[in-house]
Structure to design on (164 residues):
């Protein structure tokens, strides 16, 4: 089983995956992380009490990656620390952008593919720090654009020892 660590100026966030719930999303995310796709990109959207979003190659939420994924909606609740894929209106349009919930956001359940979660308490502390970054309205009517960049310095993929 693999784990991904998102390295940021605010600390690291270790992610555990739900391969049994959303195998294609897990595989896609890990492949992108292993290829270096996410390195140097930003957390471009932060909504306190809701989520942080990153993984856009354009840096503004309009970009996509090399493939689109069919929805793998499942029974995983969107609670603090849940990792899920962002998408456009089309449920089958997830690509590379992801979000991590800052709080319980049950209205997303069954609407977005949850495929992982924050793996430990220190990672939750990093998530909370990023969630408190000051934001501005980039012209969309939503104050969600960080005043200072929050960079994904690197994503590191590691193999976890099995628990046999």
């Amino acid at each position: 089983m693999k784990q991904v660590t998102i390295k940021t100026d605010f600390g690291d966030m270790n992610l555990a995956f739900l391969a049994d719930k959303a195998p294609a999303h897990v595989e896609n995310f890990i492949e992108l992380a292993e290829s270096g796709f996410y390195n140097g990109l930003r957390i471009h959207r932060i909504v306190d009490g809701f989520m942080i979003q990153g993984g856009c190659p354009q840096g503004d939420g309009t970009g996509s990656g090399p493939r689109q994924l069919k929805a793998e909606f499942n029974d995983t609740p969107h609670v603090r620390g849940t990792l899920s894929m962002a998408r456009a209106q089309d449920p089958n349009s997830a690509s590379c952008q992801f979000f991590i919930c800052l709080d319980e956001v049950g209205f997303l359940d069954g609407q977005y593919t949850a495929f992982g979660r924050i793996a430990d308490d220190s990672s939750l502390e990093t998530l909370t720090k990023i969630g408190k970054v000051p934001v501005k309205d980039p012209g969309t009517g939503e104050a969600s654009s960080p005043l200072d960049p929050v960079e994904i310095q690197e994503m590191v993929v590691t193999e976890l020892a099995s628990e046999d």
About this structure: The first strand starts at residue 2 and ends at 8. Residues 5 and 143 are 27 Å apart (CA to CA). The chain has one domain: 2-159.
